[in-house]
């Protein structure tokens, strides 16, 4: 194997909890909610699927189904989908919905899985190309930089920049080309069989990890090192 492609959310990094997300934005904007109301709002936002990288909607509103299906094809669609879900939940100030969306893009909202630094560093040291292929609506490279991991990534291929989202093989093909790698000598690592499994159409090997909190998944990425040894 000459290269490894990684998904972002749920694979290398995990977004903060919905409650942490809401608390941070309330603090940043000077709003307060009684604790029971805050917890209720966080629960409602979670059920709505309003946090990108968090849980999917328990029930997708019919009027958002169209934009949800293509949400990762542009920055505008991504924002429209997630703020549309957020606005289903009443908050003290309508402006908080946009503030919540902005919060999820900051590096502080993301934590790397415990073994991600070791795996990325080791691949880099072995001369294995590393690419990040993500269905997303914004530039995630600052998250990697803030956590000291950008130096190990050779290419970012982000759906919103190309108007194509996984599992479309074209996104994986772009990543392989950026790394100068034959897809048959590439491993795709992700948490979604539906989305990340699309790499198999090119001949890539696919390895799956579970989308769990960082505290519950300390070493699931380590087997990747054996796949390329």
Automatic annotation (TrEMBL):
SUPFAM superfamilies linked: HAD-like
NCBIfam families from the UniProt entry: HAD-SF-IA-v1 (TIGR01549), HAD-SF-IA-v3 (TIGR01509)
Organism: Streptomyces incarnatus
Protein name: Hydrolase
UniProt GO MF annotations: hydrolase activity
Keywords: Hydrolase
Record Pfam families: Hydrolase
């Amino acid at each position: 194997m000459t290269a490894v492609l990684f998904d972002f959310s749920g694979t290398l990094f995990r977004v903060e909890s919905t409650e942490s997300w809401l608390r941070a934005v309330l603090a940043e904007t000077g709003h307060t909610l009684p604790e029971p109301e805050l917890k209720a709002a966080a629960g409602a936002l979670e059920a709505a699927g309003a946090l990108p990288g968090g849980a999917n909607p328990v029930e997708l509103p019919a009027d958002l189904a169209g934009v949800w299906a293509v949400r990762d094809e542009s920055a505008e669609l991504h924002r429209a989908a997630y703020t549309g879900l957020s606005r289903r939940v009443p908050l003290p100030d309508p402006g908080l919905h946009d503030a919540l969306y902005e919060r999820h893009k900051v590096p502080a909202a993301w934590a790397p899985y415990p073994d991600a630094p070791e795996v990325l560093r080791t691949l880099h040291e072995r001369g294995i190309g590393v690419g990040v292929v993500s269905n997303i609506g914004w530039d995630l490279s600052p998250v990697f930089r803030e956590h000291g991991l950008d130096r190990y990534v050779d290419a970012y291929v982000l759906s919103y920049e190309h108007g194509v989202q996984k599992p479309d093989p074209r996104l994986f093909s772009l990543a392989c080309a950026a790394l100068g790698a034959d897809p048959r000598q590439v491993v795709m690592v992700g948490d979604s069989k539906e989305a990340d499994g699309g790499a198999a159409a090119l001949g890539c090997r696919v390895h799956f990890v579970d989308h769990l909190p960082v505290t519950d998944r300390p070493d699931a990425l380590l087997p990747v090192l054996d796949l390329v040894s």
